[in-house]
C-alpha cells in the first residue's frame, strides 16, 4: 500500500523534475542533480567551508628553537645576497624535480552524477591505457553530453554506435554525446589516455564535465622500474660486509680486525684509508682502499659503502672492538622481519646515543628549522621491545646497502659529521636502535698526530653551518 | 514569469520529495540523494561496468622478445629451485617497501551527498592534521549521522554544540550526529587525523559514510624531507668533476689527463685505479684512488662517483681524449635548463650509441621481460633539436651526482657492464643524448695485459645473466 503511494508520488516528481530541467535549462542551465540546489537553499544551508581550499598553502616561516644557531651568521655579509640567490635557484629546481600536479589538493564534490577514479590510475609514458570506472548516472534527459579534458596527453574511445556522437577523438578534449545513457556509458568505458611526452614520473589532471558538474581526477604517468634485489645467499658472510674508515691509526684498525676475526672469520671487511703515509693492511677477506691523504671522514665512509656487494653492511669505527654482544645475525634477523627498516643501531659499550630530528619546513626565502634532539624515541619496534624507532643512531649500525647509498655520506664533510647522514636521510631512512646488540671500544689511544686532525676547529664548525644552510635549506639548527 | 512557475513546481517537488523520504525511510532507508535511485530504475539503466574494478590486477606473464636469452638457463638446474625461493622472498620484501594502500584503485561514486579530499591530503607521522573539505550535502532530514573510519590512526573533532552528538572522539571510528546540517558540517570541518605509528612514507584509507553512501579516500603519511641541494658556485670548476676508472693503462690515462688540461686546467679529476702494480698519477686537481687489484669496472665507477662533491660529474673512459667538441659548459647549460634531466650523453668520435629499454613487468614467479634496443629515441628535448630523450647512452655523459649515486654502479659487475647502470636506473633516471657535444678516442693501444682482462669470458657472461635474473627479477633479456 505504502509502496503504491510511493510510486505515484515518484511519477509526479519525475514529471515535475523534467519540467524543472526544462525551465532551468532555459534559465541558464544552473543545474545540479535531480533537483536544482537553488530549490533547497531555504531548506538546507551550505557549510561555511565551501568551496574547499583549492590547494595546500605554502609553509610560512618556521620558528627556531631557543638556543639554535642562525646559520646565515656563518657567512660574510658580503657573500650573503649572492648566496641566497643561488640557494633559491637550487630550491626551485629541487621543487621542479620532486613536485607535480600529483600533490595538488583535489576534492570529490557532493551530489555529482559523475563517477571516476580518484586514486590508482597509472599509465606508462606514451602508452594508451583505458581509464577505469568512468560513468554518468543522471536523471532522464533527451540527450546526454559529457566531456573529458587533459593537458599532457590525448584521449580516445571507440567509434560510436547509432545515435551517439564523439568529438575530439585523439585530442586533448573529448566530448561524448548520446540520447541513450547506456550507450554513453559504454563509450566512457572505452576511453583511453595516452601521454604525449616521455617522463619517468609525473602526472596529469583530467577534467570530467557534465552540464554544470566538473570533477578533476589525477593520472599518474610512470615508467615502471625493474626491482633491484640482493641475493642473500645462505650464510651470514654472503649477507653482510663490515665497513670502516681509518686515518693514522693502524694500531687501532688492526686490533679491530683481530677482534672481528675472533667472531667472523670469513666476513668481508672494507677499509677506507686516507692516512698521509700508508701501511699495508692485509688478510683474507680484507679489502684496503687507499685514498688521497686527509680526504676526509665522510668521503671515506662513502667510499667504503660504494664497494659493498652484500644486502647489508655493518658500520664500525676503526677503534671499536667486537665482543660476544656484537651479534650480527640478530641484527640481520630484526631487519629481515621488519623489511621497512633501513638502519639498525646498537650500543657502543653501554651507550645507545639515539636521537630524533624535529624538522619544520620554513618559507622559501628563509628556509627550514631543525632540532637534533638526544633521545626522543618514537615507539618500540613491533615484536622487539628492546628496539625503538628513532631518527638517528650511534656509529655502530647495520644498514641496507641500497638505502644507505641512496642517501650517501656527503664527502664534503671532512673532519666532522655523523648526524649529517641522518639529517640528509630524514624522511627516506627508517631507523631503529636496539639495546641488546653492542660493540666494545678499544682502551687507550695511539700516541700520534690523530688528535690534531680529529678535533674540528672553528673553521670546520663554520663550514658545517654553511653546508647545512645551503644544502638542507635551513634557517637555523639546534644540536641538543 | 518562467521563474515564478519554476518556484511553484519546486515547492510541489520539495513536498513530494519529503513524502518520498518519509516512505523510503519506512521502507528500510534505502536512500540515495533526493530521490531514491530505485525510483529511477526504469527511467535509466545502470552501466554494464558497475561496480568498477576494486583494484589493479597483478601483471600476467610477459612475452619474451624473439631471440631473447632465457636467464634461468644460466643456472645449474640443481640450484634453480632454492634460488627461485630466495628471489621470491626478496621480491615480497621489495613490494612491502615500495607499495602501500596509496596505489589501490579508488573511485568517487556518482550522486553521493559526501564531499571529501581525493588527493593531496598529507599528514606528518603522529601529528594531528585537519582533514580539509569534509562536508555533507543532503536533503532535509530530522537528523543527520555521518561516520569516518581509518585504520592506521585516530580521528577527533571539537566538542559539539547543543543538539549535536560526537562518538568515538580520539578513536579510529568517529560518528557525528546532528539535527542541523550546518552544525554537522562545522564539526566535520574540524575533524583531524593523527597517525598512531611512525613511518617515513605510507598511507591510510579513510571510509566516510552517510546512510547507504560510502566514500573511501587516501591519506598520505609522510615525514617531510629536507632538500639536499648543491651550491654550484660561480665557475665551471665548482660545478663539474671529471671521473674515470683505469686498469693497467697508465699511458692512456695520462694522455687523457693531458687532453683534459688543455681545455679544463683547474677542473677536479677523480681516478679509480685497480691495477696490479700501481704507478702514481699526480698533478693539481687530480685525485688518485688505489683499489685492491682487479676490483672491477663498476666497482671503480662507483668509487669515483662516491667521491664527487660537485652537482655534476662527467664520466669518461681512460682512453678518451678531450677535443674542442668536449664542451662541458654546454652540457651543464642543457641540464640546468631541463632540471628534470639526470644524465646527458654526447658523441664518442662520431657515435652516439643511444638505446631504449623496453621493460614489461611479468608475473611474480617468472619475472619480467626486458629488451635493450639500439637507437629508439622517444622525442627531442624541448628547445634542443640536437638532443633526444632515450633510456641509455654511451660512456661519455654528464650526470647529476645525486641521481647517479641513488642508482649506483653495481660493484658486482667486474669486467662487463654498461647498460646495467641504465637498466637499474630505468624509471628513476631521465636520460638524453646530444649530437653537438663530443669527445675523441685515443689512437693505438698500449701493448700490455689489458686485453686479456678486458675481454669478458663465458663465465662473465653467465654471471651477468645470473645477476639480471635475480637482481632485476627478469625472465628473459634481449640485447639488440
Report the helical percentage of chain A.
Answer: 25-40%
Shape of chain A: elongated
Structural class of chain A: alpha+beta
Q: How widely separated are the two ends of chain A? A: 77 Å
**Rg estimate of chain A, integer Å:** 31 Å
Low-pLDDT runs of chain A = 1-49
* Strand residue percentage of chain A: 25-35%
> How would you sum up the major sheet of chain A?
10 strands, mixed
The largest interface is:
A-B, 147 and 144 residues
Number of E-state strands of chain A: 26
Mean pLDDT of chain A: 87
For this structure, the quaternary state is: homodimer
Number of helices of chain A: 10
Please tell me about this protein's structure.
- The structure is a homodimer of 480-residue chains.
- With 480 residues, chain A is of the alpha+beta class.
- Helices cover 25% and strands 28% of the residues of chain A.
- In chain A, strands 14, 15, 16, 17, 18, 19, 22, 23, 24 and 25 form a 10-stranded mixed β-sheet that branches. In chain A, strands 4-13-12-7-10-9 form a 6-stranded mixed β-sheet, covered by helices on one side.
- Chain A is elongated.
- At the A-B interface, α1, α2, β2, β3 and β6 of A face α1, α3, β2, β3 and β6 of B.
- β2 of chain A pairs antiparallel with β3 of chain B.
SSE layout and pairing:
The structure is a homodimer of 480-residue chains.
Chain A: H1 2-26, E1 69-70, H2 77-98, E2 106-108, E3 114-119, E4 122-123, E5 129-130, E6 135-136, E7 144-149, E8 153-156, E9 164-167, E10 173-178, H3 181-189, E11 192-195, E12 201-210, E13 213-222, E14 240-246, H4 250-263, E15 269-273, E16 286-290, H5 297-306, E17 312-315, E18 320-321, H6 328-337, E19 343-348, E20 355-360, E21 368-374, E22 380-381, E23 384-390, E24 397-400, H7 401-407, H8 419-424, E25 431-441, H9 450-454, H10 458-471, E26 474-479
Parallel strand pairs in A: 4-13, 14-15, 14-17, 15-16, 19-25, 21-26
Antiparallel strand pairs in A: 1-26, 3-6, 5-11, 7-10, 7-12, 8-11, 9-10, 12-13, 17-24, 18-25, 19-24, 20-21, 22-23, 23-25
Amino acid at each position: 500500500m505504502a509502496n503504491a503511494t510511493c510510486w505515484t508520488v515518484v511519477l509526479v516528481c519525475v514529471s515535475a523534475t523534467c519540467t524543472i530541467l526544462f525551465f532551468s535549462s532555459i534559465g541558464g542551465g544552473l543545474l545540479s542533480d535531480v533537483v536544482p540546489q537553488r530549490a533547497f537553499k531555504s531548506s538546507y544551508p551550505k557549510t561555511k567551508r565551501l568551496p574547499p581550499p583549492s590547494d595546500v598553502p605554502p609553509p610560512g616561516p618556521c620558528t627556531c628553537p631557543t638556543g639554535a644557531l642562525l646559520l646565515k651568521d656563518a657567512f660574510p655579509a658580503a657573500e650573503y645576497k649572492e648566496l641566497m640567490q643561488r640557494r633559491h635557484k637550487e630550491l626551485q629546481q629541487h621543487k621542479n624535480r620532486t613536485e607535480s600536479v600529483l600533490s595538488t589538493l583535489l576534492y570529490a564534490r557532493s551530489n555529482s552524477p559523475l563517477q571516476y577514479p580518484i586514486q590508482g590510475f597509472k599509465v606508462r609514458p606514451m602508452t594508451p591505457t583505458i581509464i577505469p570506472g568512468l560513468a554518468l548516472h543522471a536523471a532522464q534527459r533527451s540527450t546526454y553530453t559529457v566531456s573529458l579534458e587533459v593537458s599532457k596527453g590525448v584521449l580516445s574511445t571507440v567509434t560510436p554506435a547509432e545515435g551517439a556522437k564523439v568529438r575530439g577523438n585523439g585530442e586533448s578534449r573529448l566530448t561524448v554525446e548520446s540520447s541513450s545513457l547506456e550507450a554513453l556509458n559504454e563509450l566512457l568505458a572505452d576511453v583511453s589516455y595516452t601521454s604525449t611526452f616521455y617522463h619517468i614520473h609525473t602526472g596529469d589532471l583530467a577534467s570530467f564535465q557534465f552540464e554544470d558538474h566538473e570533477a578533476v581526477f589525477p593520472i599518474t604517468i610512470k615508467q615502471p622500474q625493474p626491482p633491484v634485489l640482493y641475493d642473500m645467499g645462505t650464510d651470514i658472510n654472503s649477507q653482510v660486509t663490515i665497513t670502516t674508515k681509518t686515518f693514522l691509526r693502524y694500531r687501532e684498525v688492526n686490533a679491530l680486525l683481530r677482534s672481528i676475526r675472533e667472531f667472523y672469520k670469513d666476513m668481508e671487511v672494507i677499509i677506507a684509508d686516507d692516512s698521509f703515509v700508508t701501511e699495508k693492511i692485509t688478510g683474507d677477506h680484507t679489502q684496503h682502499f687507499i685514498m688521497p691523504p686527509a680526504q676526509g671522514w665522510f668521503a671515506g665512509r662513502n667510499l667504503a659503502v660504494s664497494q659493498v656487494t652484500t644486502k647489508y653492511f655493518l658500520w664500525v669505527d676503526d677503534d671499536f672492538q667486537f665482543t660476544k654482544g656484537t651479534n650480527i645475525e640478530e641484527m640481520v634477523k630484526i631487519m629481515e622481519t621488519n623489511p621497512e627498516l633501513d638502519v639498525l643501531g646498537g650500543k657502543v659499550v653501554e651507550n645507545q646515543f639515539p636521537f630524533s630530528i624535529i624538522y619544520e619546513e620554513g618559507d622559501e626565502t628563509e628556509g627550514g628549522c631543525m632540532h637534533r634532539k638526544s633521545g626522543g624515541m618514537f615507539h618500540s619496534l613491533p615484536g622487539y621491545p628492546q628496539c625503538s624507532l628513532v631518527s638517528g643512531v650511534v656509529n655502530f649500525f647495520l644498514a641496507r646497502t641500497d638505502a644507505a647509498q641512496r642517501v650517501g655520506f656527503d664527502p664534503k664533510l671532512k673532519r666532522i659529521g655523523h648526524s649529517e647522514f641522518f639529517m640528509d636521510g630524514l624522511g627516506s631512512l627508517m631507523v631503529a636502535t636496539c639495546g641488546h646488540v653492542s660493540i666494545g671500544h678499544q682502551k687507550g689511544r695511539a700516541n700520534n698526530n690523530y688528535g690534531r686532525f680529529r678535533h674540528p676547529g672553528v673553521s670546520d664548525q663554520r663550514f658545517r653551518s654553511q653546508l647545512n644552510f645551503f644544502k638542507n635549506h635551513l634557517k637555523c639548527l639546534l644540536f641538543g
